[in-house]
Design a protein that fits this description.
Blueprint lengths: L3 E6 L2 E6 L9 H16 L5 E6 L10 H4 L5 H19 L5 E5 L2 E3 L1 H8 L2 E5 L3 E3 L13 H9 L1 H10 L3 E2 H7 L4 E3 L1 H15 L4 H11 L5 H18 L2 H11 L9
Parallel strand pairs: 2-3, 3-4, 4-6, 5-7, 6-9
Antiparallel strand pairs: 1-2, 7-8
Helix pairs in contact: 1-3, 3-10, 5-6
């Protein structure tokens, strides 16, 4: 696994995203996440998973440079569906998953964090879905998970303005569980993980299954439609302009 490492500390598997400078979620990083979770599932000593990012960020988004290598909208939809599948696996994982978010969780990074069962943030962390500023839409089920946490109006604001909120605001919005000063974040996350690890693995697995029943059939239809639209929007001139402007570090001019 090139971009993900994990180690067992007591009964916690500590998963680290290691893709400097931004821990951007490339296809290969997502594949590494899946492999790590496959390994952790087989380890009966692990009771809880804690995921964090190395360096300045948790994950500052998807890998935009990788987007430029995608040839068609159809291929882009497949890329979305792959990410959705891995993040759905995390949300249904048999062991509780905690995300410890510092620096930024943007775009795909926030979508990864939203698939975890619990989100702990540093007070100044930036959380958002800026895809519309690139002429795109979220592709890893972010459009569906976000409104489950913050409600439709707040989700609309985050999506349509592309402006991130702070970790402290994320707690007020219901997007994160607790916010801490950055230097305390990991120790607080480890503390919570250790507390959860004392529970019976059988009852925790059952509780996670029960929590996931709140995702009804329409949710899954929305996720499927998101992947389709991810590809359709990608085929537009506006998306090419948005991605180009991002790489050239300029303001995009969208023509619709």
């Amino acid at each position: 696994m090139g971009y993900i490492s994990w180690k067992r500390e007591g009964r916690t598997a500590e998963v680290l995203i290691q893709r400097p400078p931004a821990n951007a979620l490339s296809s290969s990083l997502i594949a590494d996440i899946e492999q790590a979770f496959n390994e952790i599932e087989q380890d009966n000593e692990v009771r809880v998973v804690l995921i964090s990012g190395e360096g300045r960020f948790f994950s500052a988004g998807a890998d935009i440079k990788e987007f430029t290598t995608v040839q068609s909208g159809e291929e882009f939809s497949k890329l979305a569906a792959r990410g959705q599948r891995v993040f759905e696996r995390i949300e249904n994982f048999s062991k509780p998953v905690i995300a410890a978010i510092h620096g930024a969780a943007l775009g795909g990074g926030l979508e990864l964090a939203m698939s975890c069962h619990i989100r702990l943030v540093s007070e100044q962390a930036k959380l958002g879905l800026p895809e519309l500023s690139l002429g795109l839409v979220p592709g890893f089920a972010g459009s569906q998970r976000l409104s489950r946490y913050v409600g439709t109006a707040k989700a609309a604001e985050l999506l349509l303005t592309s402006e991130p909120i702070t970790g402290a605001e994320a707690v007020q919005w219901g997007l994160a569980n607790h916010a801490y000063p950055e230097e305390e974040l990991l120790s607080k996350a480890r503390e919570m993980a250790a507390k959860i690890a004392l529970k019976s693995p059988i009852s925790m697995k059952a509780a996670i299954e029960l929590l996931n029943f709140s995702k009804h059939a329409e949710y899954y239809r929305g996720v499927e439609r998101e992947a389709e639209l991810f590809g359709e929007v990608f085929d537009s001139q506006d998306a090419k302009e948005g991605i180009g402007a991002f790489i050239e570090k300029r303001q995009p001019v969208f023509k619709g």
